Amino acid sequence: MKLGVLLPTFRNGSADAIAYADRAVEAGIDGLFAYDHLWPMGSPTRPSLEPFSLLAAVARRHERVVVGPLVARVGLVGTRHLVEQFLTLERIAPSRVICALGSGDKLSAAENEAYDIPMRSADHRRELMAETSRALRYRMPIWFGAGSDETNQVARDVGATINLWDATPERVRAMSASGEVSWAGPVPKELTETLNAVRDAGATWAVFAPDADVEALRDWREQNDK
Question: What is the number of structural domains in the chain?
Fold first, then answer.
């Protein structure tokens, strides 16, 4: 199972994210990811770094690490623009980009409303995810943020990994029966037990929120590489 961390992007500048990326790569973390939000969820007065620019910077700085948004929300920009963002990142980091996509939901709808970006129907957003996937699936791995049964079925139809946020091992095991699954979520109190459980349930990646102790993740990796 590969390990990833989300970079601290709810900042006025990139210094904290770059420093955390450096530590993570030094610790042997496989992937660096970034939220795609216009502000931290529920905190519209706070800042948020644009994910593709930050990921391009860390990908150029570290030539082996995998990068990707977690997740890029369809509909914030046009599909062609979103595809070009991924392709530009892929030119900087060949074979090291994950196209992780999300449909958005009621929790992120306020971001659309604030900038007068239409919040399309769930069916329309699923079609945008499928359209983006078809444009990129031969260039990079595709992940879908887990959602309704309909969204998860679209993921399987296009051959995407389903990314489960803070899911139980039982949920990971059940979803992995139909195809590849990755796990992401906040840092648990029992880190080792969580890593062992989601790995044994079939997750191909475990990606943690920006407060993850990358040295603890390195220690788990060293123990499991024996």
Answer: 1
**DSSP alpha helix (H) spans, 158-213:** 169-176, 191-200
- Residue 95 belongs to what H/E stretch? none
**Cβ contacts of 188 within 8 Å, gap of 6 or more:** 194
Q: How many CA atoms lie within 13 A of 79 on its CB side?
A: 14
Q: What CATH number does residue 183 fall under?
A: 3.20.20.30
Q: State the residue range of the domain holding 108.
A: 2-224
Q: Are 132 and 140 in contact (CB under 8 A)?
A: no
DSSP letters, 54-69, are HHHHHHHHSSS-EEEE
User: How many CB atoms sit inside 10 A of residue 34's CB?
Assistant: 26
The confidence score (pLDDT) of residue 42 equals 81
Q: Look up residue 111 and give its amino acid.
A: E
Burial of 28 (0-12, 13-18, 19+ CB in 10 A): middle
Is a pLDDT exceeding 90 seen at residue 54? Answer: yes
Burial category of 41 from C-beta neighbours within 10 Å (exposed 0-12, middle 13-18, buried 19 and up) = middle
Can you name the residues that pair with 161 across neighbouring β-strands?
143
**Residue 94 scores a pLDDT above 90:** yes
**For 1-16, how does the pLDDT look when each residue is reduced to its tens digit (9 = 90+)?**
999 999 999 999 999 9
Quote the pLDDT of residue 177: 95
For the stretch 114-144, pLDDT in tens is 888 888 899 999 999 999 999 999 999 999 9
